[in-house]
Amino acid sequence: MAQSDAVARLDGIAPPGHNVPIEGDWWLAWNADPGLLIGIGLAAFVYLRGLRLWTDRTHPHSPWRTASFLGGLGVLLLAIESPIDRLGEHHFAFHMLQHELLMMVVPPLLLLGAPTTPMLRGLPAWARRGVVRPLAASRAVHRAFRWLTHPLVAIALLTFVMWWWHLAPGWYERAMESAWVHEVQHITFLAAGLLFWWNVIDPHPLRSRIPHLPRIFYVFAGAVPKDGLAALIVFSDRLLYPAYAEAEPIFDLSLEDDQVLGGMIMWIGGDAVHVVAVIAIFLTWYQRMRVADAREEANAARL
Questions:
Q1: Measuring CA to CA, how many Å separate 53 from each of 2, 46, 115, 285?
Q2: Taking CA 200 as the corner, what is the angle to CA 106 and CA 224, rounded to the nearest 5 degrees?
Q3: Which of 103, 236, 299, 302 is the most exposed place for a label (fewest CB within 10 A)?
Q4: 80 and 36 in contact (C-beta within 8 Å)?
């Protein structure tokens, strides 16, 4: 089959919730959402522009941070625009893969990019003066920000978002049937992920209120509700998402195996990210302790 015929048949710009038969050429099932593409392009432009204009740097911004931020935008693009999105309409496992990317991969990559200063520097002057400054000076905004980023609130919101979309009766099916509900689902996953990882990764110059080493316990606490949900999905003795019984399968997976695989992606994939985070937290803490000890020894030697 010619590629043009395949693209025409796949109708890659079909919105989520419209189950278009993919048949054999699933790798061509890319989306083309103008809003998302423009948004990601603008975010990258503002970030890079801010780095270019940030000439009086008071703290270093390593190249790996830039690569991390741009990588986060790339993974976001992959999760929403690549065949992963369309395959998620036919297989629960791919929908779970998409959710994991939005909650567990994109947020930490973006935050590791320390986007606060570059994004502010990259905004037009009128936006900084007319929008950012009034918001930054607002006590209500400060109170809302401190409440949302409170560790217990962040874990509670992440838990609520995950459990609601996956277990609240009818809502998973609504996300599959309605384009705008599907977009709301993605936004809530991404927002909850950003709030959770905010307390793990210091998006310099802003800092988490949790001391460095105790963040290990915070990461574990956030993993428990997620693992519980994954276990319910994996060990369920019934089909939790009947919409997939009506979808045309792309791969040779039974509905039961597809559901188990999706639960395992949530379980093992999420825990893998948490383990990496715990190791990184410990190594960072250990390095800081070594630097502090070296400074104390140097000061003692001068005396």
A1: 47, 10, 14, 32
A2: 85
A3: 302
A4: yes
